Amino acid sequence: MAALKQENANVLLLWNTNTPYFADSVEWCPHSPYQHIFVCGMYQLEENNTKGEQKRLGAIHLFSVLEKCICLQKLQLSGILDMKWCPYKVNEKCLLSVAHANGTIGVFQLIQDDKKENKIQLEHILFSEINPVFPNLILSLDWYQEKNILSSNCMVSSESNGNIDLLQLTESELKVKLKCQAHMHETWIVCFDYHNNNIIYSGKF
Asked: Could you report the average pLDDT of every consecutive run of 10 residues in the chain (205 residues)?
């Protein structure tokens, strides 16, 4: 994680660290009492691969910021291109969705185990393949911002082939409710309109 440059007297660097891969996503947990928790997602294309294969490396580091900033957990995963906390608790759980370069979306929950030295951890719930036959990179995702009967636990994701997907999280899987071709090239960003969740914005490279 790159250090923050002190460009004027109002900016003070409190802490910095190095990450093993390129850090491309940082998200604070929005829920009490875990608002001192943030995650950092990483992605890096492996270089000098003797087999000629492109391996997309990734990791999630879980941090706590109280008196000082400490790393609570390190997870080694496929390359990570985006992460989003669900804006509301699902069955009293804090959920984190993760867009992976291997074509899957991971869902993790934040748990607290007082028996462990680092009490707060991320626990994997599921990985969902959006296109199991022809996997694309999952480039971006976002949660529906309101919790109600019709749209509870919905999210939208974008793919490297230009698709965007409307998804529904159930207790056991992430269902694709709607899929459409939004762009002819990579759909790098997708999100709900936070004032009107019936509107979805997407952008291409």
From this structure: 54 86 96 96 83 85 92 96 94 94 94 83 90 82 78 87 90 86 87 88 85
Q: Which residues contact 46 (CB under 8 A, 6 or more apart)?
A: 54, 55, 56, 57
Classify residue 138 by its DSSP letter: E
What predicted TM-score, i.e. pTM, was given to this entire model?
A: 0.87
d(CA 5, CA 71): 22
Are β-strands 80-85 and 94-100 bridged in parallel, bridged antiparallel, or unpaired?
Answer: antiparallel
Choose among 56, 34, 131, 43: nearest CA to 83. 43
Helix residue spans in the chain (DSSP H): none
CB atoms within 10 A of CB 102: 16
Q: Which residues pair with 112 in a beta bridge?
A: 120
CA distances (Å), 55 to each of 59, 60, 102, 189, in order?
13, 17, 10, 23
> In degrees, to the nearest 5, what angle opens at C-alpha 168 toward C-alphas 123 and 89?
50
Which of 40-75 are b and which e, b meaning 16 or more Cβ less than 10 Å from the residue's Cβ? bbbbbeeeeeeeeeeebbbbbbbbbeeeeeeebbeb
Say how far apart CA 184 and CA 58 lie, in whole Å: 27
